[in-house]
Amino acid sequence: AQSVAQPEDQVNVAEGNPLTVKCTYSVSGNPYLFWYVQYPNRGLQFLLKYITGDNLVKGSYGFEAEFNKSQTSFHLKKPSALVSDSALYFCAVSENAGNMLTFGGGTRLMVKP
Amino acid sequence: AAGVIQSPRHLIKEKRETATLKCYPIPRHDTVYWYQQGPGQDPQFLISFYEKMQSDKGSIPDRFSAQQFSDYHSELNMSSLELGDSALYFCASSRASSYNEQFFGPGTRLTVL
To answer: Which residues pair with B68 in a beta bridge?
Structure first.
């Protein structure tokens, strides 16, 4: 079985400061890892994915994520937060290509001016 | 770029009524997924189809059924609606060769009164 944990319900950061949104996962095989962002009353927008290769993955809007196999983590990062980054962020995992995604509980990111 | 289309965007039904949600995947995408997101919750996988065959099944109630048609669009049929079925229903599509990068539609907000 696959599972995802996002330990923080909310992350607060000042504009211009770096941000980190944490995610840990559990799968029985090799993980396919994803980050999605959701704005109010909107669908999920794909940010980035890790399949294989470099542990640091770069995605949309300046976001990046670091895959750490030993810690089974896939934290989302951005060097300089924007107020417009304020949204709900979901980490997701699947065990194989074509499989369902299992989402974490989501982390609300609040970036204050 | 073309995105996933869902219709209707909003739907209001009475208890015990039926509802049909439609999903039109991105062209050349061969896999469709359905997710349910309750208020304040993370998306939960319902069911998926690959090349018009059911490929995976999650926590989909027996009152719900779905299928994928020859043009790859999919429909989620919901019968004997209950108040607890009120949620945002997302459809996502992917190509089997894309390592499960799922693109989500804007969702259908179903309200059961």
So the answer is: B74
Instruction: Output phi, psi for B76, to 5 deg.
Output: -110, 115
Three-class secondary structure assignment of chain A: CCEEECCCCEEEEECCCCEEECCEEECCCCCEEEEEEECCCCCEEEEEEECCCCCEEECHHHCEEEEECCCCEEEEEECCCCHHHCEEEEEEEECCCCCCCEECCCEEEEEEC
What would the pLDDT profile of B26-65 be if each residue is shown by its tens digit?
Answer: 998 989 999 999 988 999 999 999 888 998 899 899 999 9
- Write out the two tokens for B65: 């059924």
| Interface residue A96 vs chain B (CB under 8 A) | yes
Q: Please, which pLDDT band fits residue A96 given cuts at 50, 70 and 90? A: confident
Out of A32, A45, A100, whose CB is closest to B45?
A100
* C-beta of residue A35 within 8 angstroms of C-beta of residue A45: no
Mutation target among B6, B102, B109, B110 for the A interface, most CBs of A within 10 A: B102
Closest CA to B48 of A52, A102, A25, A27: A102
**Count of Cβ atoms closer than 10 Å to residue A55 Cβ:** 11
| Apex B21 CA angle, B17 and B27, nearest 5 | 170
